[in-house]
Amino acid sequence: MSDLIGSQRELEELLNSGKGVLVLFYASWCPFSRKFLPLFEEMAKGSKDNFCRVLADEMNGCEDRYSIDVFPTVIYFENGKIAKRLDGSLGRGIDEGQFAKMADSCGLIQ
Question: Does residue 110 fall inside a structural domain?
């Protein structure tokens, strides 16, 4: 299971650790987030250190800080900066093919 990040400070420390990190921003009230979470966790099994998640309900301001308009949104950070992102589609979320393609392009699929 990927690590659940509990604070902005914890997230910033992880993002500035020098490794590439794929972060799932999701919301407990969003049906597309709930549907996507098991897929994210399955992919995280092979590279747990490179995957984490942020429950937006518990981290105020993350939507504004990372320009998140739709949940779920997955952002890949390198050296603390956004390198790639995959925003969910309204009414659809993120599907397995989209996510696999993104994770592969980040070099995170083993």
Answer: no
